[in-house]
Batch of 2 targets.
Target 1
Amino acid sequence: MKSKGRLVGQRWRSIGGLPSIFLLCLFLFFAGLFGSTLVSHQDVQLLTVRPRSRVLKSVEEFDVLPNGDTGEHSLTSIPFQVLSWFPRALYFPNFATTEQCQGIIKMAKAELKPSSLALRKGETAENTKGVRTSSGMFISASEDKTGILDLIEEKIAKATMIPRTHGEAFNVLRYEIGQSYYSHYDAFDPSQYGPQKSQRVASFLLYLSDVEEGGETMFPFENAQNMDVNYDFRKCIGLKVKPRRGDGLLFYSLFPNGTIDPTSLHGSCAVIRGEKWVATKWIRDQEMDE
Ligand SMILES: *[C@@H]1O[C@H](CO)[C@@H](O)[C@H](O)[C@H]1NC(C)=O
């Protein structure tokens, strides 16, 4: 059985017939002629204004393929934008609905505790004070009776094509005014943290709120910028991603060969106005123990 799939894309329709092609050529000729005289009279400033980038939408129909046992018989459309290749970072606009975001905040709010850090050799809770000032809580999809996290987790698995069994529980975080997270890696370098049973491959951040000002996720080493010894880990520089409710951000901490990508260093800029809520899912190279 064949079914029709629909996907957002661009499509040229044939106009058909020689006479119409001739008319089209004629039209383009005159359009060019008039256009060029018009333009030459315009203020040049007008032409240098960069158009706002828009996403063109049109609908294309085609046949989907027969699916395997574990596959699906319809198409999924999860739009994304490549933000960077160094690190590999993708932005997913409108990944979750407003209701889903509000539901997650509601379930997390009562359980918040000051966030903690994985400590390196020589580090203590005392001497790392200020590095991470948010509050947070952990919740797995199975603990969430509303079913929201189940849907989100499934969508993340599709977007990454890494099975759900590789994900840690969601870490829901709140940053209030002045709170931040200095630049750090999500992966654990064995030379600093000791031998690791499994490694974090990628991180998916779902922004649960808008932030009026500040609170960006930043990648200070994006495209190998600022990678000098004098870099101040508290600084909010490099590629910055502004939190918007419902949007997702995915980045990979490891190269395809399994070594840590140095440009995956990232942090959370201090919130200046408003409040930042985010749900983080860390994805590992091994399945999580149940
Ligand atoms: C792993 O991949 C990265 C990026 O392609 C490369 O720079 C690095 O040399 C590789 N490391 C090893 C040990 O293969």
Target 2
Amino acid sequence: MTTPKNPTLEAEKKKQRRVAMTTTCVKCGEALIAPDWSEFVSEQLVLNLWTCTKCGDRFQTKTYMPPDAEPKMSQKDWEEMFPPLLVA
Ligand SMILES: [Zn+2]
């Protein structure tokens, strides 16, 4: 893990943690906080792509959202909540 250059981005990652979920690297067991990329496949299925910060292994997880968990999020809401990395 490198030293964070952008405190705002770190704050966003913490926010993301609430919605997305942590996972552990399938290879080395390193705890990963936020996926590299999340994609809404459907209202209830989210694909998360992860890159391990320790060993660099890449894998994906699927998250099934309970139907009553959150109101439907549009892509726009998602982007507002998780600004693209170019916001620096
Ligand atoms: Zn790993």
